[in-house]
Amino acid sequence: MTAGVAEVRFGRHTIGPAHPPFVIAEMSGNHNGDLDRAFAIVDAVADSGAHALKLQTYRADTITIDVDTPAFRIANKDSLWDGENLYALYDRAHTPWEWHEPIFARAREHGLEVFSSPFDPTAVDLLESLDAPAYKIASSEIVDLPLIERCARTGKPLVLSTGKASIAEIDAAVRTARDAGNDQLVVLGCTASYPAPARDSNLRALPVLAQAFGAVVGLSDHTMGIGVPLAAVAFGACAIEKHVTLSRADGGVDSAFSLEPHELAALVTETKRAWQALGRPVLGPKPSEREGLRLRRSLYVVEDVRAGEEVTERNVRSIRPAGGLPPAEIRTVLGRTFRVDAAKGTPLTWDLL
């Protein structure tokens, strides 16, 4: 096991097992090229109770080049973007750099943490100028060790998405960050397909990530709905990232697998509830069961009896509440005699016999 940290400070929040899950809402390209729609998404994220808004910071020509050969086209029949040219897709989906400052300001007005995934050093420079509190390394960029080092040297937390990555590639990314003096890492399990089938989520790998890298872990989820991230909390996910849109019916590059605002609100509520339900690995009565313990069954006198009468199944029974002898003692007491008078409703104790 690699030594690491038990929690990560992210702006005003702390991410770790002792804290409710940190919910990150990814806007991506769901603004559909409309700044007012981007603002509306920010407002909806704030209303949902999510903790952070995330952007993606690139231009088409900082993430790829304008070439239309087969290598530059997506060839995946299960992808939303099957057959699309990379440059055209990224040109349509990117968030203009001049939008970043007003979006950051809008999010901060709501008290949201706001950060982004930079895709090259110039994006890091822009985000540094906006005092971004953290950096996200996207799944495809986990192999870009110079980019990881550049982000790590800011001293700000790094959120590393591990979709498509081998354990060696994850190890190289984590080591690069730590060698740059940054141990504020949140490592996200991720299935980098869009949308992702739930069967590929492999949530049992989350404790492996935590143990192998000594890092706080979470989930970057592209499945439909909120079932997978709720299950992830049970496997130790301390941060949950989901794409969000105003309405899937409006369309957009990521809308098909994005949450609508009411679903994001449910995610915030239910991940916290799932975290609260984890408890401790012990067996026994819970504090909330104290009154229930008092109402468990025991042996009671169920009709008035006089001294000298025999204990029978008619005058002594196992009923609720507690207070009398355990129900298992019925075989021992039947046939004995009462030593004193006892009224109906008296708990049966040894001193009555």
Automatic annotation (TrEMBL):
PROSITE patterns noted in UniProt: AFP_LIKE
Biological process terms in GO annotation: carbohydrate biosynthetic process
Single GO term (MF): N-acylneuraminate-9-phosphate synthase activity
Identification of the protein by name: Pseudaminic acid synthase
Organism, as annotated: Prauserella muralis
Organismal lineage: Bacteria, Bacillati, Actinomycetota, Actinomycetes, Pseudonocardiales
